[in-house]
Write a structure and sequence with these properties.
alpha/beta; Rossmann fold; seven-stranded mixed sheet; 7 strands; about 25% strand; binds adenosine-5'-triphosphate; binds magnesium ion
Length: about 150
């Protein structure tokens, strides 16, 4: 599903809708879900992620995960989702195995795991996986957001 966003707010709203969808999916299937976010610098991955968090009433404060590798959030309303993990792998070595950052422990609960720059880690997810690919468009504030299942 390829969507077009014309503003930062629109990208956040798309992320929020994705969060609402994920909550329903997790309620139905009782499983953690991995969401990988690909796309060049400034393409909107963090804005999208903030939208997902917003669906759970979470407003992130402080440093973005770009500086801390991983942040863990708890839904602010009663939810089947135990927590939301936001990882930014940008600074990791390309060979880093995801187990080195404790990925397998993260998947023991019904969590949502958001990973920016998944190309910088190696992983073979054995949990449902949604791919989000963000692209710059022809104008400065246009972004294309493709949400799909991995092939
Ligand atoms: N339609 C849009 N959607 C999202 N962001 C937009 C849009 N138009 C302009 N922007 C701007 O683009 C930037 C997107 O930044 P964001 O941190 O989300 O990128 P990123 O993909 O996470 O980059 P990085 O790889 O550095 O983490 C923000 O400064 C935002 O204001
Ligand atoms: Mg980012």
């Amino acid at each position: 599903m390829k969507l077009i966003s014309r503003t930062e707010e629109e990208t956040q709203q798309i992320g929020e809708k994705c969060g609402v969808f994920l909550e329903k999916y997790i309620a139905q299937h009782k499983t953690p879900v991995l969401v990988t976010l690909q796309g060049e610098l400034g393409s909107g991955k963090t804005v999208f992620s903030r939208g997902v968090l917003k669906a759970f009433g979470i407003i992130p404060h402080g440093a973005s995960p770009t500086f801390v590798l991983m942040k863990r959030y708890t839904p602010q309303h009663e939810s089947v989702v135990s927590h939301i993990i936001h990882i930014d792998a940008y600074r990791l070595d390309k060979e880093t195995n995801i187990d080195a950052i404790g990925f397998n422990d993260l998947t023991k609960e019904d969590a949502i795991i958001l990973i920016e720059w998944p190309e910088h880690i190696s992983y073979t997810p054995d949990i449902p996986h949604l791919m989000v690919v963000c692209e710059h468009g022809e104008d400065e504030t246009i972004r294309y957001i493709d949400i799909r299942k991995p092939q």
